[in-house]
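User: Show me an example of a complex going from sequences to structure tokens.

Assistant: Sure. Here are the input components:
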Amino acid sequence: MGKSIGIDLGTTNSAAAYYDREVRVLPTRMNEPLTPSVVSYRKSRRESRPGQILVGRAAVSNARLAPEDTIFSIKRLMGRTVDEPKVEEVQERFGYAIVSSDDPEDRGVRVLLNGVEYTPIDVSAMILRQIKEDAERALGEEVTHAVITVPAYFEERQRAATREAGQQAGLVVKKIIDEPTAAAVAFGIDKAEERHRVLVYDMGGGTFDISLIQMVNKQFQVLAIEGDMWLGGDDFDHEIVKAIEERIKAEYDGFDPSGDERFLMVAKQEAEKAKILLSGQNEVDLLIPGITSAPNVGLVDVDMVITRQEFNDMIQKYVDHSMDLVRKVLRDQELGVGDITAVLVVGGATATPLVHQAVTDMFGRDKVKGYIDPMQCVALGAGLLAARIKVIECPNPDCEAENTEDAMTCGRCGHSLVGARVRGDVSVGAVTAKSLGISVVRDGAPDTYAVIIPKGTPYPLHRPMERTFYTTAENIIKVPVYEGEETLATKNDLQGVIEYPLPEDIPVGTPVSVRFDYDQDRVLKVTVWVHGRSDLKKEQTLARDRPRAAFEKEDEAEEEWREMLEGTINASRHFQSQYSRYLDPGTASKMEADIQRAERAFAEGNKIEGSRVVNALHRTIMGSGVASQLFIAERAMDGLGPEAATLLREAVRKLRTAHEAGDGEEVERISMALQLAVARIFQRRASQTDVPDQDFGGLLKDLGR
Amino acid sequence: MGEGISSEDAPKWLQAFDFNQQVAVMEKEYVREMRNTLLSFLEVLDSFDRCFSAIDQTREMSSLAQSWLRSFEGVRRQLRRTLEQAGVSFMNCQGEPFDPHKHEAIQARSRPDVREGIVIEEVVRGCEWRGEVLRQAKVVVTRKSR
């Protein structure tokens, strides 16, 4: 299957996020974090040719040329019928035509784009399709699945409409999630064990939503919603524009610039910038030379200081209004401020300190959470959920089987899963705090960590998670289980080792599956089996709080220490014989002394002395200028293709020559290049798939996903 | 070896080091910061452009004012050249067909002598950097003559 993303399908702007180790918002094709939720029709310059439908930034660019063919705020029309007052409000504000369907059965609205009727679902699908394409461009891979957010007040038909838009855009919609729930997930509220009653204060550019949600046993339930469809950060910008106009009137003899469109364009842009600056500083120096020109005066400059206090005074009325609505929600629910356990501030306008302050004044600093970029919060939560939700429920009401997320049709009844939905409350559940996986050989490198249950996976698992690997030894299978996020398996916490002998008829490279099941008590059950051999199956339960087996560990450590010391002595002898002439005499004699110390420590079994001298020798081998460069290059040369080997040999030759000529600068330059080349070689080697079979003590081989 | 990597770790570090990814991360960071820096310098150029375009050529100007104007014109050119040296290429969209990916229409105007959908004025300069649009041009476009 392709990638799975979270989409915040907003009224004004939309955003997509993707989780891979961490969750991030994906940039659009215009390198912007947001896609304007706008669709516009552009006529062809030749009448005979069809025009083009533009989405996002390009649609905004085209809006002035085709106001009647540019659809803004389509979200406000989702699942609505023409006779609703909300539809009328939209009609009053925008230039495009809203009509009713010809079909008498269907009261749903249609919008006109170049005289053609489209449903709000069609238009939303166009936006979603562009988001999908941009996400694919950013990730370099196909995107097939999505979690899409909707406002908590969306009714069933509006949610169904959003889901349908997702399908039309070619996405399997894993889930439709409430925006406040996505925000709660982004803030990690869902991970808390206790009961929560959360108020989400979401003020965007043009809309204001309050949601009161309750989380019990990790189930979210929306208790109440309130809001103002036409209140937001744009109102704040407009206040600053008005202040600029007032200042010009006062300074330029009553000259009123407000009729000049170019003035408004520049003023609005500067106002928005000033607003953002005022979030971080106490005053802003608004300097706009030549913003417009006035008759008899010439150029009109704006040079004014706006303090945060002045700005606060301008926007106080909007903030007061929003807080009145917050109080109304609490009153309606017969709740006091103390009944709210957390307040999340979401939406771009909440970056304004006065807004944050008003919320904090009411609820107290401890409860108000606003540390995640409020513009991206909902998308980030959706992105996290897109990665976590692994199950798609069959939409066939007679079936409702749970399917794995990569299924396109139901495994039980064959019904298409495009459009599949999960009924009931949104359950996010407990999630694993760390990844669980095993140590494998990947691309010839042992000690590679292969994750089986990723961090953040909800548990208990709906079904066990498994991956397939391949044997590397004829006589044994060894599966060390770890918990953690490090790429080197042994740097994580060992949970236990499953190890068993194989009969002789199992060739190297036979597929072996490793299955992890994780229950609500955090007990990990590991099952390992050789494909086609039911007798070669082993199951082991690892209780996660079990103290580690101390004896085993010590034996292993003893062995490791001896191997390490012996390997270091051998490497040092080799280093000495090959590169001593590149060492200064002091280093060379110290090295000889260290090697002798190491040999003594090995013979005497003196661990402390041994590890001390190993460190000293490593420092010499890795940190002795040209000698070390040559040594590392030699190591990199092993198993290199002829072309790369030639290049590397050439670099080594140049380095030797430069060193012999005593050209310090040249040595520096070449050794830098050599270091990069060597790092590249190791990197490439790590990504090669075909490596000769080696003895890895029964670790499984991972061919990557 | 680089800073912060102790010699003991080096062999493991070399194996685990995702060189290409490191380069990609650094590159992205650089591009992001550079874009922002270039965009703020472009705004200074916008101010120059606005001021110069408002000069009324028909009006009498003292020789002192004229010499200042000349010098400031020089400063504007200098700024533009500096941005170009940093890799910014300026669009020259007047007379070009409107392209919503590169241009943002801020006004539609009918001009009987020009066919529909042509940029007749570049109000705010558009530019590209590293083969991508750094900033869209804000333009006036012809509409169908009535």
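The lines above are the inputs; the final block is the predicted structure for all two components together. Chain B touches chain A through 39 residues (CB under 8 Å).
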